[in-house]
Amino acid sequence: MQTPSLELKGSSFTLSVLHINNDDMAVIAAELDAKLAIAPQFFIGAPLVVNLSAIQNNNFDLLGLKEILTSRQLIIVGITSASSELAKQAKSIGLAIVKSGKESSSQPQLPKTTKIVKQNVRSGQQIYAKNGDLIIIGAVGNGAEVIADGSIHIYGTLRGKAMAGAAGDRNAVIMAQKIEAELVSIAGQYWLTENLQQNGAAPSGCIRLEGESLTVESLPL
Amino acid sequence: MAQIIVVTSGKGGVGKTTSSAAIATGLAMKGHKTVVIDFDIGLRNLDLIMGCERRVVYDFVNVINEEANLNQALIKDKRTANLFVLPASQTRDKDALTKEGVGKVLDDLAKEFEYIICDSPAGIETGAMMALYFADIAIVTTNPEVSSVRDSDRILGMLQSKSKRAEEGLEPVKEFLLLTRYSPARVTTGEMLSVQDVEEILAIPLIGVIPESQAVLKASNSGVPVIIDQESDAGMAYSDAVERLLGQELPFRFLTEEKKGFLKRIFGS
């Protein structure tokens, strides 16, 4: 069988993006020269994408910009984040409109969901509240683990392990009616039983992260 | 409708088989038709405690594998009317138990019996899981010491997640705490957890406190369930537990140290 003379395949490349914040060509040219002077070899023949998000002026001289860049041996691959008027102009002078990968894949943030558990968490059980707070109405036994991306509230005795801010939220807190925990952790900073005892854990308390270390304060329960 | 009661603990040696034998005998003595099943395949003990080890011909695994029918395997207790024992196999292992097989045997037993007591093996593997899977009621046998309490907590978690009732989203298994080998004197000296400590940690209703007693060992060795010895404190405590299981409210006995009388103190007990 004859091999086809051409093939179409998708691939992604890393490109430098040049952000334009000014519509004055003379100023752009001067600043560009200053930048190129730092590492001239590095920029020769470099493919560039021009980001025009800061340009609102529809009379912006795109052709002029193209000439400035090509005269300095830079190659415009395409433009991105341009107003619709400028995008039309770009097409007419043969420039591609590209979308950055980040822009297209950015998802709306998931709403926080709270997880409520209305029973004792027993030894060997593990409960994880993804993207939200965890509320336990009952005790957390020795050998049990409760984990949340947000804060953890325990209306009962905490005897097992509690890990709040599991996804890195440093503002998360752990509150419990009675703290006899094996381990408490917020955003990766943790305390074991002996640390809790040294720091004079109150019978009922709130554990939070202050700077790089945990603190415990009692609650008027 | 028959009630399936599992006697379980997680930890070994806390008194599951002793309690299974005593509770089954107690229920039968109250006139309820009861069968007690040994789930400890490969390490059967229940027949010894019940004093029927010489009468085992067919066992639970034979029935599951349809090598014998239920009536051939069930052993009628000689002392107590209404009481039957389904012994475990000594030559097989726990993998002989399958959900379908156990389910079918329990279904067949449920047609004839009011109470089915499942004597669970220790651990959280197949044997223990099979024993608790079909349960309506769980009697969690616990000694007043930290490792036993921890294992009981683990088993309670299993009951809440791995039982048939949990999997099918039915009303959860009723859980009761049976505290065994309780020694008030050692609680006073701080060597043992108190009833209150254990209740606080496990947070399930207490159904009985069985005192540490010479009568238990004596009864086990002679193959007579300790509940038959109504002179002993352990026997009386098991009777109370059975009454509570049947819905009566009774005060707890044997929770405090027995004060030795003046003469006893001089002459010893």
TrEMBL record, chain A:
Ranges of residues in domain Septum formation inhibitor MinC C-terminal: 116-216
Domain Septum formation inhibitor MinC N-terminal intervals: 6-76
A biological process term (GO) from this entry: regulation of cell septum assembly
Keywords tagged on the record: Cell cycle, Cell division, Septation
UniProt keyword annotation of Cell cycle present: yes
Pfam family, one: MinC_C
Source organism, top-level taxon: Bacteria
Record carries keyword Cell cycle: yes
Role, per record: Cell division inhibitor that blocks the formation of polar Z ring septums. Rapidly oscillates between the poles of the cell to destabilize FtsZ filaments that have formed before they mature into polar Z rings. Prevents FtsZ polymerization.
NCBIfam families in the record: minC
Alphabetized HAMAP family for the sequence: MinC (MF_00267)
Subunit architecture: Interacts with MinD and FtsZ.
Family: Belongs to the MinC family.
Protein name: Probable septum site-determining protein MinC
Native organism: Shewanella fidelis
Highest classification ranks of the organism: Bacteria, Pseudomonadati, Pseudomonadota, Gammaproteobacteria, Alteromonadales
UniProtKB/TrEMBL annotation, chain B:
The protein's assembly and partners: Interacts with MinC and FtsZ.
Keywords of this entry: ATP-binding, Cell cycle, Cell division, Nucleotide-binding, Septation
AAA domain span: 3-165
Organism encoding this protein: Shewanella fidelis
GO MF annotations, alphabetized: ATP binding; ATP hydrolysis activity
Xref: InterPro entries: AAA_dom (IPR025669), MinD (IPR010223), MinD_FleN (IPR025501), P-loop_NTPase (IPR027417), ParA/MinD_ATPase (IPR050625)
Organism phylogeny: Bacteria, Pseudomonadati, Pseudomonadota, Gammaproteobacteria, Alteromonadales
Name of protein: Septum site-determining protein MinD
Protein function: ATPase required for the correct placement of the division site. Cell division inhibitors MinC and MinD act in concert to form an inhibitor capable of blocking formation of the polar Z ring septums. Rapidly oscillates between the poles of the cell to destabilize FtsZ filaments that have formed before they mature into polar Z rings.
One protein family per Pfam: AAA_31
